[in-house]
Design goal:
The complex is a heterodimer of chains A (117) and B (112). In chain A, strand 5 and strand 6 form a beta hairpin. Chain A is globular. In chain A, strands 2, 4, 5, 6, 9, 10 and 11 form a 7-stranded mixed β-sheet that branches. Chain A has a 4-stranded antiparallel β-sheet with strand order 1-3-8-7, with no helix packed on it. Chain A is mainly β and 117 residues long. Chain B is mainly β and 112 residues long. Classes of the chains: A mainly beta (117), B mainly beta (112).
Chain lengths: 117, 112
């Protein structure tokens, strides 16, 4: 059972380049999230989706775009990478919202480490 | 002000010690809290969740919420080297509580 799979796991970009991070989940979850994790800042929500075809902004959305064309996939795009976007990116999914009918447990991928030079 | 604030640590304790990890929260509207554990270079995993005030126990772990002081605590009894990880508290936030906001995490090292 794969759970949440993120690709690529590592990437080095030059300032101004673009890239897309792919998140795939095989648990038929409705909710999907993209977080970034930086030292001293914890996990910060970039964008999230509550179902296929929907997206919403989180805490730090600037410089990122997302799409959820298929229920199982959630893509995070960087159109013009900046050094401030050097981070570890985590995708997560859940069956329902936290504290709802079930625990709303978030299942995380193993992270994608991005360096922007 | 962040909705969930957490002691940054790091915290280093000897094996067998009782560990206390703490968070404060600002949004009292939805009394549901979670603790996630994150091992180095891995994604976080749900450790415990709890509703409203009181204690919830699961093996060596106890989660406690104090509504009056808006304090969330995680206690680890008989700590083991395998407990060495970063612990993050979390709370549902936003319209419809569709988002989950995390504290910054406390890094714990249990020394054999």
């Amino acid at each position: 059972n794969a759970g949440v799979t993120q690709t690529p796991k590592f990437r080095v970009l030059k300032t101004g380049q673009s890239m897309t991070l792919l998140c795939a989940q095989d648990m038929n979850h409705e909710y999907m999230y993209w977080y970034r994790q930086d030292p001293g800042m914890g996990l910060r929500l970039i964008h999230y989706s509550v179902g296929e075809g929907t997206t919403a902004k989180g805490e730090v959305p600037d410089g990122y775009n997302v799409s959820r064309l298929k229920k199982q996939n959630f893509l995070l795009g960087l159109e013009s990478a900046a050094p401030s976007q050097t981070s570890v990116y985590f995708c997560a999914s859940s069956y329902t919202r936290a504290g709802g009918q079930d625990t709303g447990e978030l299942f995380f991928g193993e992270g994608s480490r991005l360096t922007v030079l | 002000q962040k909705e969930v604030e957490q002691d940054p640590g790091p915290l280093s304790v000897p094996e067998g010690a009782i560990v206390s990890l703490n968070c404060t929260y600002s949004n009292s509207a939805f009394q549901y809290f979670m603790w996630y554990r994150q091992y180095s270079r891995k994604g976080p995993e749900l450790l415990m969740y709890t509703y409203s005030s009181g204690n919830k126990e699961d093996g060596r772990f106890t989660a406690q919420v104090d509504k009056s002081s808006k304090y969330i605590s995680l206690f680890i009894r008989d700590s083991q080297p395998s407990d060495s990880a970063t612990y993050l508290c979390a709370q549902p936030t936003g319209g419809g509580y569709q988002k989950v906001t995390f504290g910054t995490g406390t890094k714990l090292q249990v020394i054999p």
